[in-house]
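INFO worker-7 received task bundle
INFO bundle size: 2
INFO processing item 0
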Amino acid sequence: VCVWGGGCKYGDGSICDPLIYNDGGWLRLVGRIVESREQGLSTRDAIIDGVVDTGTVITAAGVIMSLAFFGLLLSDILLLNQMSFFLLFAVLFDTFIVRTLVVPSMMYWLGEANWWPRKMPSSPLSANAAI
């Protein structure tokens, strides 16, 4: 429950959490990948697990934010139309291209270099081996 007098915390995942889309989307995605990797999954399986677990929240937050910017697009003021168009494009691009394709593919490409200088478990489990 969100209480404006201090009931909300940054990063708590509630509906009033201001970090769900902005910094929180990155924190959720990468944080979930790190958690999965620390549990012993391989880097590839941890990336898949992170994207699957956080994809719906990040996508929903991006769509809601783009709908808000679309409302500004209906304004009669030219400056608001231009700004809302670019904000709408940027949010949709970030939601559907960067956070779902670019970040996971770069993390997969970097492999174990993602975790430098930190040490991760040396015997990664495959998601298929757990079945």
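INFO item 0 finished
INFO processing item 1
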Amino acid sequence: MPNTTQLRYGTYGIRAMASKRVGAATIEAVRRTLRRKIKKTARLWIRLSAVVPVTRKPLGIRMGKGKGVIDFYATPVRPGQIIFEMDRVPRKVALQALTAAQHKFPVKLGFVEWS
């Protein structure tokens, strides 16, 4: 199993401080926000991917009759897990990106520096 609590690619990272199931749409929204903050010259790595299908049955349908259709894809996020990594960006801009991402992500985030 890969180590998801340490930086692998970048100089700065964004770490989850709690656990929760996060959908693919949320990951994409945070990715867009980060890219807007760190601009084109910076490198951005996404360390998690939504691969768990979540099913739902429509409203008003009785129990039984099999499993519902896939509604969205999600991934479990654990405490201490690195979610995003950045490189070729000043520390000040990386901290601003963390603040912007915090508003979109459903768990508290922390900042990690390579040492």
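INFO item 1 finished
INFO post-check item 1: Helices lie at 24-38, 91-102.
INFO post-check item 1: The chain has two helices and seven strands.
INFO worker-7 idle
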